[in-house]
# Entry
Amino acid sequence: LRAEPCFSLTLEIRTCLRAEPCFSLTLEISNMAEANLSAELRVNTESGRSIKKAIIPIAGLGTRFLPLSKNLPKELWPLIDKPVIQYIVEEAKAAGIEEILFVISSDKKVVLDYFKPSPKVEKILKERKKTALLEELKKLQDLTDGLSIHFVFQKQPLGDGHAVLQGKKFAGNDPCAVFWGDDIVDSEMPCILQLSKVFKTCQKPVFALHRIPRERISAYGVVDAEKIASRFYKIKRIVEKPPVDKAPSDLAIVGKYILTPEVFEYLEKAKPSEKGEIIMAEVFDEMLKDGKVIYGYEFEGEWVECGNKETWIMANVYFALKHKELGPKLKKFIKDNMRI
# Structure
């Protein structure tokens, strides 16, 4: 009533299975917007489940890149000196993921081959004393060390929800991360690790969110959400590609999220769209209508899209400018050719 932050503190002490006291500490602040809290609203010494599994759907047809993607999957297209899919796997590994399931189409097994050793190539490089290139290959093998990689076929392209559903058996009763191959986040802390930390406090599905300029909002799925704390939101509904004047917010859903087993139950009973597809956004909306809780987290970092020709080119420019060797050369090239 005094227009100042109000605090409510609850301390619960109980006996755990370990026959030791366990503490649950909850801090509520009525003036959340001004409190600048971290996403960890609840401090609990019995930490929640962490994320060890990830699903990476890459079975799409790549129609936005045709005819270029007809023979070479867009996931293997380079962003400067490594393919798009490597950025995704690097983020998963850095976030503590131990098992990855690729959802692929029958003509994309070449993506899996990329992560396999290349004895023939290594032999030639050794003979030619190409130590720098050998070191790059070693880095790629180091990336997959400690990772258990699986794959499953999506026989028909029946929507993003159908692709994720192929991972139901893989996920089992565990929470699971999902990475879409079109979205890379350049950040100090991996985006999916940021979501994982939020998940450990709430144990509910969590979306990655990012603010989009209003003039571009109609190209994205946008959330109507209640702000709970700094960067932390409770999702109320999802609006797919709204007109600018109808958008409930400027927070777009990025292709990274944490799912709980319950999401797969909804995917299984989802009704296909008129095109015969299972759409993730519609499934999430159905969950929200049933009173299920879904959160969103506005991650820290730069969202680098590469889902069409335009964004793929810009993603290359973005990473080239940050590249230790190429950056200065590209800046000089741009400066010298400003007349273009």
